[in-house]
Amino acid sequence: MIDPRILREDPDRVRAAQAKRGLSDDVVDRALAADTARREAITTFESRRGEQKRLGKLIPQAQGEEKTALLTRTKALAAQVKEAEAAQAVAEEEWRQSLLSIPNLAADEVPAGGEDDFVVLETVGTPATFDFEPRDHVELGRMLGAIDLERGAKVSGSRFYFLTGVGAELEFALINLANETAREFGFTQVIAPSMVKPRAMDGTGFLGQAADDVYRIEGQDMYLVGTSEVPMAAYHSDEILDGSSLPLRYAAFSPCFRKEAGSHGKDTKGIIRVHWFDKVEMFVYTTVEDSYAEHQRLLSIEKAFLDKLELAYQVIDTAAGDLGLSAQRKFDCEAWIPTQGKYRELTSTSNCTEFQTRRLDTRGRFTTADGGTELKAIATLNGTLCAVPRAIVAILETHQQADGSVKVPQALQKWLGREVLEPVTGG
RNA sequence: GGAGGCGUCGCCUAGUCCGGUCGAUGGCGCCCGCCUGCUAAGCGGGUUGAGGAUAAAACCUCUCGCGGGUUCAAAUCCCGCCGCCUCCGCCA
Q1: Residue A28 has pLDDT above 90, yes or no
Q2: Chain Cα centroid distance, residue A84
Q3: pLDDT computed for residue A70 by the predictor
Q4: Angstrom distance (rounded) from CA A175 to CA A167
Q5: Which residues of A line the annotated binding site for L-serine?
Q6: Is A49 an annotated catalytic residue?
Q7: Each residue of A182-239: pLDDT tens digit?
Q8: Does CATH number 3.30.930.10 belong to domain A115-421?
């Protein structure tokens, strides 16, 4: 949720932000009207309620006719109060809904436009070249006995897989490396629940434009999370955090579930786009002022991780129209996938500023210059440390050799206990 | 899943049977001030959060786990839900 004060005091800024994302600004007018209506309704209710309370106090001391008269008046008033209260609730809800439907205001630096209007900030490493015909990760996975897509489909359906043998070992190695990296950078490790209540899902903005991608548990009013950003954002909901304890940096492991609705035909082969995968996600609570530097920090950690995997990648500044509901700015790290001849998203980091904490009611208590304290909205940020399947895809394809074996990046060797993954079947 | 108990403004706690001077008691902690060579003790005051109003205040409304209901009036009575604890059953 954006700051209601910005909407009231500078609606044109919100209109401009909507335009930048390619969205209508109707909702701005709707929200402004709702705000006015809401305040009127509050005034009406409060004046009636105030009178009711004043008169009510007189009743216990009143006697005889005076008391009867008072009761008649307060009884009528009670009905009015009830009515005014209901009207206020309606106005309040309309205001809330219109405000909730406004996405976070994109940063000035964010490129305008849609999915294809990103700006490449940086290219790191050189895409791998081969003196043989490189195999895709599906074939390599089969040769190594690492990825079993056929049985994944048999047991669970399309976009499911078993990681077996070195595939499973590779996941654990990646998780270990991610956790080691998290530790180096001062993150508290967390294992987060991947089923959440609607509050958490909605608070992180995933029941908005992304709702189609979310699995709901039948008959339970619970959801499977698509990322541990969801439980981690809700982790401190309804809390007032000690400002001096910030930043709070978490690295949360969880399985992630995505319907991938509307992606029919995209990445149908392999494990680039799957309904379930494991991920270690960085999640940070900090002040809004510090969030911009923290965002850069998360990006640098993601880059450091990709460097450890010895991958070639580019960093893009996502265009406004391709930002999530909550994000103010988003950087994606896209690794080179040899058999696709292009860069594909491996990690992503977003600064959600105060958008999520306003929805989930997380604030910070800070000491002011004069020694007092004040409550302020704080910022949340998230960033992928390692999304396992895509990391595996990039590693297998990048480090493959002519015979179908795969060189293990140095940083993973101690976790895998070997320098090369050897095929278990012929090519 | 069955039975019972509990949920009060940071923590503890009074109040709930018998609705209105509880529009929330006291203690601890914390903050400000006084006092005392310093410190401690002592004394006085302050200390939930949200919203409305205002130049800013004063002020007003809401907030006793959450949501309804009864009533002129609800922390208090009634209904539903959630969470925690204890016992039983079941189980990785």
Answers
A1: yes
A2: 38
A3: 80
A4: 12
A5: 227-229, 258, 281, 382, 384
A6: no
A7: 999 999 999 999 999 888 998 998 887 778 899 988 877 889 999 999 999 999 998 8
A8: yes
Residue A426 pLDDT class (50, 70, 90 cuts): low
Which residues of chain A are in CATH 3.30.930.10 domains? 115-421
Q: Give the CA-to-C1' distance from A76 to B14 in angstroms.
A: 36
Beta-strand runs (E) in A97-169? 119-124, 147-148, 162-163
- What is chain A's Cα-based Rg? 27
Q: How far apart are CA A391 and CA A171, in angstroms?
A: 9
* Shortest CA to C1' contact from A77: nucleotide: B72
ipTM for the assembly? 0.86
Residues A216, A239, A345, A365: which is the catalytic one? A345
Rounded to 5 degrees, what angle do the CA atoms A378, A383, A384 make?
A: 155
| Class of the CATH domain delimited by A4-100 | mainly alpha
In this structure, what token pair is assigned to residue A61? 């001391």
Region(s) of chain A under CATH 1.10.287: 4-100
